[in-house]
C-alpha cells in the first residue's frame, strides 16, 4: 500500500479532526445482518396479499404468435390472472434504455427462445407453475438468425423490421444501420492503412469470445404492488432511478408515482443493471389487482441478460525497434434480440481495442448486431474483457518475434501519466509502466522457470464511473447521530460501509453513530446507477459534500453560540471544540431549534453541468493490470495457475480490506471467463442452463499464490483522491493467462481455454 | 411451536429447529427450504442454483450439511435442523460469524449463511483446519463475490481461536447480536 | 417445481416390493432423492407415489461378514466414505464414495440410489463393475444376485425389475496379488471420463484384468480388447501403454455438449494408463 493522504479541499475552515476512519479497514456496516441471516433480500419479503408469478417462455427463437388462449389456465383454482401481449394496449409497452425495442411481454412475435409470452399470477408457486402448461399458444415458426454469421448475411431475416425509437438514456448514441446492425462505433485516428503498410512487423488474427452468464447468486427477483398512489416495486436492481424512469414511461405515470425500493442485493456484476423483470411483474400485478412476486430461476436469469459473445479481427503493426505503429480492429458483438446495453458494450469494446499504447494510427469498428438470441447487456468490465486479451496477445506475439521482453516492450510503448488516452477525452492519471512492472515481479518475471511453466502480463485502461450524476443527503438527528441517504445500491461491493466512512470522516463522528438507508426512490436522492466502479468515486463525492454541508451548519451554530470565528473551532468525536471546551452536536442542534428535537440536513451533488468531471469523460480511467504464471499438463491440456497478481490502482483506498476483496473477486471471475465459463446454444436454445452444466470458479480453482497489489497515488477524482476498482482485474486476467500460454508456444484465439482446446492447439503446434 | 396444516397437508412431522421443537403438517412434496423460509420465516437459507450445486441453501440436519433446495421437509422429521438464525447463542455471535466479519469474508451476503454452516460442519470434524483442508471441504460451496481467500482466512482463524480456547463453540463470540452503537 | 406425490413407508422389503408391483409405473423407489428429486423438480419425470425404502430396518448397514463387505443399499456415500469396514476391506470403494457429487449430495445420496438411477457418470458404478461386485435384488418372492457388469443396461436403465428392490452391494476383498485403481477427469461436478482397473499379477505376469470405462458412454463397460492385451503379459511399459491405447480406441463413447468423442477417447487412454499403472503397483504389494 503506497497511498498518500491528500487533502480533499472540499471543506473550508474548521477542517475535520484526524479521526481517520478513511483509509482503515473497518468492518462492514452490513456484516452483522449478513452473518446472522437477518439481512433481507427481495425474495425474503412478504407483502400482505401477495401472489406468486411464473413466466411462460417461447420455445422458438423466432415465431409469429397466432393466438394465446389462457382461458383454461384462468379457470384453474388459485389462478388470479394471466398476462399476455393483449393486456398492454393502454401502455407504452416497449422499454430499453438504449433502444426501446423490448416488449414487456411478447406482442405478436417472439424474437428469442426464452422470451416471455405470458405470465401467471396465482395464490402459490405450485399453482402458478402448473397453470403455465394450460396456456395454449399457437406459433408460426419463422426463419431465425441464431448467430452472428447468419445475422450478417445479405438478405438475412431482420430481427426488427419496425422503426425503432431510441431509449431515454442514450439517444445520442443511437445509430441504427442497415440489416441487423443495432449500433456502430468507430475510432479513426491517423491513416491506419498507410501506417500499417509502413510497419516492419505485422500480426493479425481472428478471435472469439463466448456468451457468459454473470451468475449473481440471487437471481432477478421483483415484488410489485399498485395502490391509489401509484406503483411500488421492490427489486434487486442496480439502478433504481433508471428502473423508475422506464416504469414511469411504460405505465404513463409521473416519476413521483413510481417508487423503487432496493433491499439487499445478492450480487449484480451487471446482470441487474438497467431494467429487467420489473415491467413484467408490474404489469402482472396491475392485471391481478394484487401484489406479485416473480423470482427468476437460474436458467431464466441466463435468458434475461448475459455477456455478449463476440467475433473479432485484429491487426497490429510495430517497428523493428519495438515501437508500436498501428492497430486495426473489427468487432462484432451479438446483442441478441434486443439492444439491452449492446451500444455501450460496443463502445467499450471499441475503446479497449487499441490498448493503452502510443499509436501513430488506429482504426476500430465495433458493431452490436441483432440476432434471434437471448439479449446481451452488462457484465463487469464489459468490452474491456472482450478485447484486452486479444490486443495484449498480439503485443506479446510481436515482442517474441522481435526478441524483446514483453514487459520491456510494454514499458517502451505504454502511455505516461498526463498523456491522451483517446482523442478529446480525459488524460491518463496512472503510471502504467510502474503497474505492469509490479505484477511482473509478483509472478516471478525474469526468474528461472520449471519446464511447462509460462508467464504473462496484460494491461489496459477502461473508461469508468459512467455518467457522473449523483446526489446524496445526510440527516443529523437531534441526538447527534446520522442517517445517510444515497441511492447507490449495496450489491456486495461495500458501498454502505464506504459511504459511512466518508461521512464519519467529514463529520468526525464515530462510525457506530451512522446508519445508511437502503435505496428507495421516495426517500434516498437521485443517483444515476450502481456500476462502472463508480460508487466510491461519484456517490462518495456527493456524500462527502452532503456531510460537509452539515459540518458547515454545525460550525455556524457553534460560532454563534460562542461568538467566535469559525477558524477557532474544530470537530472531534461528535462535538465542536474551542480549545478545551466542547459542545456536542446534540447540544448544538437543541440550541439551534430551541427544543429537544430538530435535525440538520446536508445536501451534496455531483453534476457534470456544474463542471464536475469532463463532459467527454470518463470520470476516471480504471486500470486493468494482471500477471499470471501457469503450468500446463500437456497430457490433458489442463492449466493450473501457480501465481496470479493484479494491481488495483485506487488513488486512495477508503477501506483497503474492501478494495482487496473486490479485486480478489474480480480476479476469480477473470479465471472463470478465461478457463470455463460459456453459455452453450443449439439453434438458439440454451442447452446448459443450470449450474450443473454451467461451471463457475470454486475454491479448488484458486491459484497457489495470489497478490492483490494496492496502488494509491491520491490522484483519483473521488473523495480523498479515491477512484473506483472492482472491474479491471476481470479484464486483465484472461490476457495474462493467454500470454502465459504464448510463453509456452501456444497461441490461443478462442475463449474459454478449455482443456480440449488447449490440447488441440498443442497437437497443432507439435 | 405449532404450525398450521396447509390444505393439502397429509403428513405430520415433528422436528427441532434451532433448538426449538416444531410440529407441523406438511405436504409430502414440500421442500425443506420452502418449509424453513415460508412456514417458519427463516429466510437465511437462500435459493440460488436450485440443483444442489451452489450451497446457498445449506442447513445442518443432525450436524450434516444438506441442500435444503433438494431435500424434502419430510426428511427432517425427528431430526435437528440448524439454520444460520440459530447459530448465535445468548446474544453473542459464533466465532465463525465474528471471523467472517473481521476478515471481510462477507460481500453480497447471499452465500454467507450456507458458507458459515458448511464451515461449522468442518470445524466439528477438523477443529483447526489448514487452508488446504478448508479448500478441500468447502470447494463445493460457491461464492461469486469474494474470490474465496478471505473466507478461507476467516475459517482458519475461527478454528485456531476456538482450539486455543479463546472462543468457545456455540455463542461466546466477541460481538453482540445487538445493533452497533447502542446509545 | 414438484408436483404432488405420496410417500409410502414400507416396513419390509416384501412390503415395498408389493407396493411397487401394485403401483407400477406410478411409483418410484425413493432411496436418497438426490437424482430423483432433481428430475422431478425439472418436470422430466413424475411419480405420484414414492416408496421410501430408507424406513426398512437394516438396509443402511455396512458390515464385513463371512469374507464379504456388504454395503446396505441405503448407506449414504458419506457413510461408506467414513466406514472403517469399507476402508479396510475395499479402500478404493470407500475412496470413490468421497468423489461423488459434492459433500451435501454425499450426505443424502445412497449407493443403491446411485446405482439404480444408472446415471452414465456414476463413479461407484464404474468401480463396482471393475471390482466385480454383486448386487442383491429382492422382491416379495425372494432374492437374486446380479453381477454389477450385468446390471447396467443403458442410460438410466438397469436389470432391476419394477417390483424389485436393490438391498445390498456385496464386495469381496481383492484376492492376493490384485490391485485396483480409479482415475477420473472432471470439468464439472460429474466426470467427463473415468477408468477403473483391477489387475491380478502372478509370477510377474497378468493373471486377470478388468478394465472398465465410465462416464463417456451410456453405461460403464469392460473393454475386453484392453484386458486381452494384458493377459499373460508382463505388466510393464509398452504392454500397459498398448492396453490403455486400446481402451481409448474401443470404448463406447458418446459426444456431449462440452467435449468431442476424439478428446474423450484420448482421455480414456490417458486415464487407463494411469489406472493400470496404479493397479499394477498395488497388485505387486498386495499379498
Describe it for me?
The complex is a heterotrimer of chains A (766), B (183) and C (287). By secondary structure, chain A is an alpha+beta fold. Chain A is built from 18 helices and 32 strands. Among the domains of chain A are: 31-39 and 467-610, Aldehyde oxidase/xanthine dehydrogenase, molybdopterin binding domain (Aldehyde Oxidoreductase, domain 4); 406-465 and 618-765, Aldehyde oxidase/xanthine dehydrogenase, molybdopterin binding domain (Aldehyde Oxidoreductase, domain 4, 2-Layer Sandwich). In chain A, helix 10 (384-402) runs parallel beside helix 17, helix 11 packs antiparallel against helix 12 and helix 16 crosses helix 17. Chain A starts with 30 loop residues before the first helix and ends with a helix. With 183 residues, chain B is of the alpha/beta class. Chain B has 2 domains: 2-86, Roll (Ubiquitin-like (UB roll)), CATH 3.10.20.30; 95-163, DNA polymerase, domain 1, CATH 1.10.150.120. In chain B, strand 2 (11-17) and strand 3 (20-26) form a beta hairpin. The longest helix of chain B is centred in the C-terminal third of the chain and has 15 residues, at 149-163. The termini of chain B are far apart. Helices cover 38% and strands 26% of the residues of chain C. Chain C is built from 12 helices and 14 strands. In chain C, helix 10 (224-230) packs antiparallel against helix 11 (237-250). The longest helix of chain C has 25 residues, at 261-285. The mean pLDDT of chain C is 96. Chains A and B meet through helix 1 and helix 16 of A and helix 2, helix 3, helix 4 and helix 5 of B.
Features:
A: 766 residues, alpha+beta, Aldehyde Oxidoreductase, domain 4, 7-stranded mixed β-sheet, 5-stranded mixed β-sheet, 26% strand, globular, B: 183 residues, alpha/beta, Ubiquitin-like (UB roll), 2 domains, 6-stranded mixed β-sheet, 5 helices, 29% helix, 15% strand
Amino acid at each position: 500500500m503506497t497511498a498518500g493522504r491528500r487533502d480533499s479541499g472540499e471543506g473550508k475552515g474548521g477542517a475535520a479532526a484526524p479521526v481517520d476512519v478513511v483509509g482503515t479497514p473497518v468492518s462492514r456496516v452490513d456484516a452483522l445482518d449478513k452473518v446472522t441471516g437477518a439481512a433481507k433480500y427481495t425474495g425474503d419479503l412478504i407483502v400482505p396479499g401477495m401472489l406468486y408469478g411464473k413466466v411462460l417462455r417461447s420455445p422458438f427463437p423466432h415465431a409469429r404468435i397466432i393466438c394465446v388462449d389462457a382461458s383454461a389456465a384462468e379457470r384453474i383454482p388459485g389462478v388470479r390472472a394471466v398476462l399476455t401481449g393483449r393486456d398492454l394496449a393502454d401502455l407504452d409497452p416497449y422499454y430499453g434504455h438504449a433502444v426501446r425495442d423490448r416488449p414487456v411481454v411478447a406482442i405478436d412475435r417472439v424474437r428469442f427462445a426464452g422470451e416471455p409470452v405470458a405470465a401467471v399470477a396465482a395464490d402459490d408457486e405450485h399453482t402458478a407453475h402448473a397453470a403455465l402448461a394450460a396456456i395454449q399458444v399457437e406459433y408460426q415458426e419463422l426463419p431465425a438468425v441464431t448467430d452472428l454469421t447468419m445475422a450478417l448475411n445479405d438478405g438475412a431475416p431482420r430481427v426488427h423490421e419496425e422503426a425503432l425509437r431510441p431509449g431515454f438514456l442514450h439517444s445520442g448514441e443511437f445509430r441504427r444501420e442497415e440489416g441487423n446492425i443495432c449500433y456502430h462505433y468507430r475510432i479513426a485516428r491517423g491513416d491506419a492503412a498507410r501506417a500499417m503498410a509502413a510497419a516492419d512487423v505485422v500480426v493479425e488474427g481472428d478471435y472469439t469470445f463466448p456468451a457468459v452468464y454473470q451468475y449473481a447468486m440471487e437471481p432477478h427477483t421483483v415484488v410489485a404492488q399498485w395502490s391509489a398512489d401509484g406503483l411500488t416495486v421492490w427489486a434487486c436492481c442496480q439502478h433504481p432511478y433508471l428502473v423508475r424512469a422506464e416504469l414511469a414511461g411504460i405505465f404513463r405515470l409521473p416519476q413521483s408515482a413510481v417508487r423503487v425500493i432496493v433491499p439487499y442485493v445478492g450480487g449484480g456484476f451487471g446482470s441487474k443493471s438497467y431494467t429487467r423483470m420489473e415491467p413484467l411483474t408490474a404489469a402482472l400485478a396491475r392485471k391481478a389487482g394484487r401484489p406479485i412476486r416473480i423470482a427468476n430461476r437460474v436458467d431464466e436469469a441466463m435468458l434475461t441478460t448475459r455477456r455478449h459473445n463476440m467475433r473479432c479481427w485484429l491487426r497490429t503493426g510495430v517497428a523493428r525497434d519495438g515501437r508500436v505503429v498501428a492497430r486495426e480492429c473489427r468487432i462484432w458483438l451479438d446483442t441478441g434480440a434486443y439492444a439491452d446495453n449492446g451500444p455501450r458494450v460496443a463502445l467499450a469494446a471499441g475503446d479497449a481495442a487499441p490498448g493503452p499504447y502510443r499509436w501513430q494510427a488506429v482504426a476500430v469498428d465495433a458493431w452490436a448486431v441483432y440476432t434471434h438470441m437471448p439479449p446481451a447487456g452488462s457484465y463487469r468490465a464489459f468490452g474491456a474483457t472482450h478485447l484486452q486479451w486479444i490486443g495484449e496477445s498480439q503485443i506479446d506475439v510481436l515482442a517474441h518475434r522481435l526478441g524483446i521482453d514483453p514487459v520491456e516492450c510494454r514499458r517502451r510503448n505504454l502511455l505516461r501519466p498526463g498523456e491522451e488516452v483517446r482523442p478529446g477525452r480525459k488524460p491518463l492519471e496512472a503510471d502504467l509502466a510502474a503497474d505492469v512492472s509490479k505484477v511482473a515481479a509478483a509472478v516471478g518475471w525474469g526468474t528461472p522457470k520449471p519446464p511447462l511453466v509460462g508467464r504473462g502480463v496484460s494491461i489496459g485502461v477502461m473508461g469508468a464511473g459512467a455518467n457522473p450524476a449523483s446526489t446524496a443527503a445526510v440527516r443529523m438527528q437531534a441526538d447527534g447521530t446520522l442517517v445517510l441517504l444515497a441511492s447507490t445500491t449495496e450489491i456486495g461491493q461495500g458501498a454502505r460501509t464506504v459511504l459511512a466512512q466518508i461521512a464519519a470522516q467529514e463529520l468526525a463522528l464515530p462510525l457506530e453513530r451512522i446508519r445508511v438507508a437502503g435505496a428507495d426512490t421516495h426517500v434516498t436522492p437521485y443517483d444515476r446507477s450502481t456500476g462502472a466502479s463508480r460508487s466510491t468515486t461519484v456517490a462518495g463525492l456527493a456524500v462527502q459534500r452532503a456531510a460537509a454541508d452539515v459540518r458547515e451548519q454545525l460550525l455556524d451554530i457553534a460560532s454563534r453560540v460562542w461568538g467566535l470565528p469559525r477558524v477557532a473551532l474544530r470537530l472531534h468525536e461528535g462535538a465542536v471544540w474551542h480549545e478545551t471546551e466542547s459542545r456536542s452536536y446534540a447540544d448544538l442542534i437543541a440550541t439551534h431549534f430551541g427544543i429537544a428535537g430538530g435535525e440538520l440536513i446536508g445536501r451534496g451533488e455531483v453534476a457534470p453541468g456544474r463542471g464536475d468531471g469532463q463532459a467527454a469523460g470518463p470520470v476516471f480511467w480504471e486500470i486493468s493490470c494482471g500477471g499470471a504464471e501457469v503450468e500446463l499438463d500437456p497430457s490433458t491440456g489442463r492449466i493450473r495457475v501457480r501465481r496470479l497478481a493484479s494491481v488495483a490502482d485506487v488513488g486512495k483506498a477508503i477501506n483497503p480490506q474492501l478494495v482487496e476483496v473486490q479485486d480478489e473477486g474480480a480476479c476469480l471471475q477473470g479465471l472463470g471467463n478465461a478457463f470455463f465459463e460459456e453459455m452453450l446454444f443449439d439453434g438458439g436454445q440454451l442447452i446448459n442452463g443450470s449450474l450443473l452444466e454451467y461451471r463457475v470458479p470454486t475454491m479448488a480453482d484458486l491459484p497457489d499464490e495470489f497478490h492483490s497489489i494496492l496502488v494509491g497515488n491520491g490522484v483519483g477524482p473521488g473523495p480523498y483522491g479515491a477512484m473506483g476498482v472492482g472491474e479491471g482485474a476481470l479484464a486483465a486476467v484472461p490476457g495474462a493467462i493467454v500470454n502465459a500460454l504464448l510463453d509456452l508456444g501456444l497461441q490461443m484465439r478462442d475463449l474459454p481455454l478449455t482443456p480440449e482446446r488447449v490440447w488441440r492447439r498443442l497437437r497443432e503446434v507439435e | 411451536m405449532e404450525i398450521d396444516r396447509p390444505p393439502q397437508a397429509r403428513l405430520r412431522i415433528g422436528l427441532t429447529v434451532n433448538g426449538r421443537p416444531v410440529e407441523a403438517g406438511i405436504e409430502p412434496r414440500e421442500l425443506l427450504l420452502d418449509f424453513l423460509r415460508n412456514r417458519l420465516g427463516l429466510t437465511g437459507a437462500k435459493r440460488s442454483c436450485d440443483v444442489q450445486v451452489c450451497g446457498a441453501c445449506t442447513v445442518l440436519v443432525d450436524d450434516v450439511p444438506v441442500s435444503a433446495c433438494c431435500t424434502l421437509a419430510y426428511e427432517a422429521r425427528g431430526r435437528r435442523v440448524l439454520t444460520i438464525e440459530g447459530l448465535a447463542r445468548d446474544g453473542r455471535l459464533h466465532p465463525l460469524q465474528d471471523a467472517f466479519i473481521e476478515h471481510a469474508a462477507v460481500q453480497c451476503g447471499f452465500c454467507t449463511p450456507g458458507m458459515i454452516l458448511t464451515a461449522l460442519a468442518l470445524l466439528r470434524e477438523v477443529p483447526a483446519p489448514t487452508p488446504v483442508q478448508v479448500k478441500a471441504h468447502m470447494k463445493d460451496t460457491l461464492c461469486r463475490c469474494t474470490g474465496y481467500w478471505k473466507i478461507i482466512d476467516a475459517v482458519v482463524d475461527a478454528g485456531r481461536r476456538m482450539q486455543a480456547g479463546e472462543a468457545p463453540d456455540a455463542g461466546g463470540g466477541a460481538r453482540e447480536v445487538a445493533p452497533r452503537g447502542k446509545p | 417445481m414438484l408436483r404432488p406425490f405420496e410417500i409410502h413407508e414400507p416396513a419390509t422389503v416384501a412390503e415395498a416390493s408389493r407396493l411397487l408391483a401394485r403401483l407400477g409405473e406410478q411409483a418410484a423407489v425413493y432411496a436418497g432423492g438426490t437424482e430423483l428429486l432433481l428430475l422431478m423438480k425439472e418436470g422430466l419425470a413424475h411419480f405420484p407415489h414414492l416408496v421410501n425404502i430408507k424406513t426398512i430396518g437394516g438396509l443402511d448397514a455396512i458390515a464385513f461378514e463371512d469374507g464379504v463387505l456388504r454395503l446396505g443399499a441405503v448407506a449414504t456415500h458419506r457413510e461408506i466414505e467414513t466406514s472403517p469396514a469399507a476402508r479396510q476391506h475395499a479402500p478404493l470403494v470407500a475412496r470413490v464414495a468421497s468423489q461423488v457429487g459434492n459433500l451435501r449430495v454425499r450426505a443424502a445420496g445412497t449407493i443403491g440410489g446411485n446405482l439404480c438411477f444408472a446415471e452414465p457418470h456414476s463413479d461407484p458404478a464404474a468401480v463396482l463393475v471393475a471390482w466385480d461386485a454383486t448386487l442383491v435384488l429382492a422382491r416379495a418372492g425372494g432374492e437374486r444376485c446380479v453381477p454389477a457388469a450385468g446390471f447396467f443396461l443403458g442410460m438410466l436403465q438397469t436389470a432391476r425389475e419394477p417390483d424389485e428392490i436393490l438391498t445390498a452391494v456385496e464386495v469381496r476383498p481383492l484376492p492376493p496379488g490384485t490391485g485396483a485403481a480409479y482415475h477420473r477427469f472432471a470439468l464439472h461436478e460429474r466426470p467427463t471420463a473415468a477408468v477403473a482397473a483391477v489387475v491380478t499379477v502372478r509370477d510377474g505376469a497378468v493373471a486377470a484384468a478388468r478394465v472398465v470405462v465410465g462416464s463417456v458412454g451410456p453405461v460403464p463397460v469392460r473393454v475386453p480388447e484392453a484386458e486381452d492385451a494384458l493377459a499373460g503379459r508382463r505388466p510393464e511399459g509398452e504392454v500397459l501403454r498398448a492396453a490403455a491405447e486400446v481402451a481409448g480406441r474401443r470404448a463406447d463413447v458418446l459426444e456431449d455438449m462440452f467435449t468431442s468423442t476424439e478428446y474423450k477417447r484420448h482421455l480414456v487412454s490417458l486415464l487407463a494408463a494411469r489406472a493400470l499403472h496404479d493397479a499394477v503397483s498395488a497388485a505387486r504389494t498386495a499379498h
